[in-house]
Design goal:
With 386 residues, the chain is an alpha/beta fold. It folds into 2 domains: 78 residues, Aldehyde Oxidoreductase, domain 4 (2-Layer Sandwich), CATH 3.30.365; 284 residues, Aldehyde Oxidoreductase, domain 4, CATH 3.30.365. It has 12 helices and 13 strands. It has a 4-stranded mixed β-sheet. A 4-stranded mixed β-sheet has the order 8-9-10-13. Helix 7 runs parallel beside helix 11 and helix 10 packs across helix 11.
């Protein structure tokens, strides 16, 4: 929630600098300021402060460099605070992605082949020196996270990336590639399940027969959500996620106002296996916060451009989640004797996958573009918003 800010002070001769800022990479600050001023890094002092919220945004340091330039021009220390309008219009955005998926089934309706193509602009190509993209052979791991569908036992898999070049300011989104890949993957699985007449949970249990950790999480969230109970006016959607060796499964329960196209998330259940869980309470709150953050992006948060200009300017036209929008959230930590892995981003991708599948279960149609705004929902249902 905190707008970007930094304070900078240069020595009278311009040979050294001090900066005060909350950033995710102090070394990048020191090296960036040194390069900007043409001095050695040992002449730059960075006073690191706590972040006021970031989710990757404070891995970029343009506000620090701007403060340094202003301090140099003013000949005195300068504290720079971006306005909310600066933050929204001058931000960096997650890449827009398009997905192509296909699967092959055998005579017993078992999935034996899987192909996922992701089309997007490269985050690494924008944020890193050209040599970095060449070094990794053009493979953008930020964009492709989650696409190999690691927990699922499918003998033949192919995940590939087609790079577009659009000139948009880019940065990783919280949850990185899993955030956009998981809704496509898990949505496709639900469509396969419907095509072959199988329950979405049962299909995933079959696919995780050789992955006991993943299977246990699916069984856990199914029990938490009372998966088999018939609902009146609501529906459930399930998803399984793997990110950096952490496994998490989720179920969302939603309803739909068919006149307005408004989706309401009533309940959300999640189970996480991050190996040996060092701090279970913090893990639960991370997942809760990620789910809330994710729901906002799935249902309403949207940036639009006209002639290259961002149209949103503040919370009046960039709608974030509010207290009355928050569902009941229940998280269970399943600690196992595996090495500890991360938990900071794993709630976010679940939102799009589970809500999308719940909508599909409720209506029989798929909204294939995020966010699932009322107008897009009504369009998918073949209606017009009044």
């Amino acid at each position: 929630m905190e707008p970007l800010n930094a304070t900078a002070a240069l020595s009278s001769d311009g040979g050294s600098a001090e900066v005060w800022c909350g950033v995710q990479g102090p070394s990048a600050v020191i090296n960036g300021v040194a390069q900007l001023l043409g001095i050695s890094p040992d002449k730059v002092t960075c006073h690191q402060h706590y972040l006021g919220g970031a989710y990757g945004r404070r891995s970029q340091i343009e506000v620090v460099l701007s403060a340094v330039l202003l301090s140099k021009a003013a000949g005195r220390p300068v504290k720079l605070i971006w306005q909310r309008e600066d933050d929204l219009k001058g931000g960096r955005f997650r890449p827009a992605t398009s997905h192509y998926l296909e699967a092959g089934l055998d005579a017993q309706n078992r999935i034996v082949s899987w192909h996922h193509r992701v089309i997007a602009e490269s985050v690494i190509a924008y944020t890193s020196p050209p040599a970095r993209l060449e070094q990794i052979g053009g493979k953008d791991h930020i964009l492709m996270k989650g696409s190999p569908v690691a927990p699922y036992d499918i003998p033949n898999k192919r995940a590939e990336f087609v790079r577009q070049q659009k000139g948009v300011r880019l940065s990783p989104w919280r949850g990185v590639g899993v955030g956009h890949n998981l809704p496509a993957i898990e949505g496709f699985l639900d469509e396969i399940a419907r095509e072959i007449g199988k329950d979405p949970l049962d299909l995933r249990l079959e696919l995780t027969d050789k992955s006991p950790r993943a299977r246990r999480l699916l069984e856990t969230v199914a029990q938490m959500s009372d998966w088999d109970r018939k609902r009146e006016g609501t529906a459930l959607g399930i998803a399984l996620e793997e990110k950096d060796e952490t496994l998490v499964a989720g179920v969302a329960e939603i309803s739909l106002d068919r006149l307005s196209g408004q989706i309401k998330v009533h309940h959300f259940w999640a189970a996480i296996d991050c190996g040996i869980c060092v701090q279970p309470f913090n893990t639960m709150t991370q997942i809760e916060g990620g789910v809330i953050y994710g729901i906002g992006h799935v249902l309403r948060e949207e940036i639009t451009h006209i002639d290259g200009r961002v149209q949103q300017s503040n919370f009046s036209d960039y709608q974030v989640m509010r207290m009355e929008d928050i569902p009941s959230i229940e998280v269970k930590v399943v600690s196992t004797d595996n090495k500890p892995t991360g938990v900071g981003e794993d709630g976010v991708p679940l939102a799009g996958a589970t809500i999308g599948n719940a909508f599909y279960a409720l209506t029989g149609v798929r909204v294939r573009e995020l966010p699932m705004t009322p107008s897009r929902v009504l369009s998918a249902l073949g209606a017009t918003r009044t």
